[in-house]
């Protein structure tokens, strides 16, 4: 399957916008990605190994958070994973 | 220092978007190419502000829409280069909210002040740093190309 790397993380993936991996599940794909590019790990995962709150992972058009099996969802070679950091803000002080 | 380069058409469309959504914040994405001097913007895509609960002072682009924008950037052979939003009746300066919720390191965040419905100052800030812990906004000049 192909994992699409967002602009801000390409510097930690040898400049690549897409990386092909061979994995059985979403978590397996993310693990393979971060084994190949260890510098990505701190940007994607908390110190407890969970996907950071502001990082969205999409399997094709589906938000992985809302899939029944979440990161344990099985994937096929034709699937794509998109990593999308969130976008928000505004003039109101937090 | 980096600079943000974009055409008059893209620049004006962004500012008009802020006037159209006033008194609410508008938002959108820039598609472009990275150069040693900064981003060269080739297109913009309007997005919906999903913060309907507080649209006058907050904005958010849904992750589903971001996935579609990212797909469109690939189709055009471009990258997501940054994002824009408006500050209705508020200066074109980043807020603590903008910084806390900015996660696209190396990308440009453009803010247009809209005063009484008219676009006023527009400023660009590049999200510098290498991690969430040391990220910061750095002001960058905007160069508008009138011939493009």
Q: What would you say this structure looks like, in words?
A:
The complex is a heterodimer of chains A (94) and B (148). Chain A is of the alpha+beta class and 94 residues long. Chain A contains two helices and six strands. Chain A has helices at residues 26-36, 41-44; strands at residues 2-4, 18-20, 55-59, 62-63, 80-85, 87-89. In chain A, β3 and β4 form a beta hairpin. The mean pLDDT of chain A is 96. Chain B is α/β, with parallel strands linked by helices and 148 residues long. Helices cover 22% and strands 43% of the residues of chain B. Chain B contains three helices and nine strands; from the N terminus they run βαβββαβαββββ. In chain B, strands 3-2-5-6-7-8 form a six-stranded mixed β-sheet. The longest helix of chain B is centred in the first third of the chain and has 14 residues, at 8-21. The A-B interface holds A 4, 6-8, 11, 17, 42-43, 52, 54-56, 58, 61, 63, 82, 84-94 and B 25, 27, 29, 51, 54, 57-61, 63-64, 66-67, 70-71, 74, 79-81, 83, 85, 87-88, 90, 94-98, 100-107, 109, 127, 131-132.
List keywords for this structure.
heterodimer; A: 94 residues; alpha+beta; 5-stranded mixed β-sheet; 2 helices; 6 strands; globular; B: 148 residues; alpha/beta; 6-stranded mixed β-sheet; two-stranded parallel ribbon; 22% helix
Low-confidence stretches of chain B: none
Question: How widely separated are the two ends of chain B?
Answer: 23 Å
Percent of sequence in beta strands of chain B: 35-45%
Largest interface: A-B, 27 and 42 residues
Distance between the termini of chain A: 39 Å
Described by the principal axes of the CA atoms, the overall outline of chain B is globular
Number of strands of chain A: 6
Number of strands of chain B: 9
Structural class of chain B comes to alpha/beta
In terms of quaternary structure, what is this?
Answer: heterodimer
């Amino acid at each position: 399957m192909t994992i699409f790397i967002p602009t801000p993380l390409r510097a930690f993936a040898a400049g690549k916008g897409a990386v092909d991996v061979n994995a059985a599940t979403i978590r397996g794909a993310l693990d393979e990605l971060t084994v190949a590019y260890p510098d990505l790990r701190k940007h994607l995962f908390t110190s407890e190994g969970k996907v950071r709150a502001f990082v969205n992972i999409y399997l094709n058009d589906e938000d992985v958070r809302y899939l029944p099996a979440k990161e344990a969802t099985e994937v096929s070679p034709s699937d794509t994973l998109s990593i999308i950091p969130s976008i928000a803000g505004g003039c109101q002080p937090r | 220092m980096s600079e943000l380069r974009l055409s008059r058409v893209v620049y004006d469309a962004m500012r008009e978007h802020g006037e159209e959504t006033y008194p609410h914040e508008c938002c959108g994405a820039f598609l472009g190419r990275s150069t040693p001097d900064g981003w060269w913007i080739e297109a913009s895509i309007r997005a919906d502000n999903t913060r309907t609960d507080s649209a006058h002072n907050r904005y958010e682009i849904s992750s589903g829409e971001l996935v579609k924008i990212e797909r469109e950037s690939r189709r055009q052979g471009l990258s997501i280069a940054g994002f824009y939003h408006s500050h209705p009746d508020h200066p074109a300066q980043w807020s603590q909210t903008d910084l806390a919720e900015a996660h696209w390191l190396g990308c440009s965040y453009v803010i247009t002040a809209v005063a009484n419905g008219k676009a006023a100052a527009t400023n660009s800030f590049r999200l510098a740093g290498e991690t969430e812990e040391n990220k910061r906004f750095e002001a960058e000049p905007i160069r508008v190309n009138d011939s493009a």
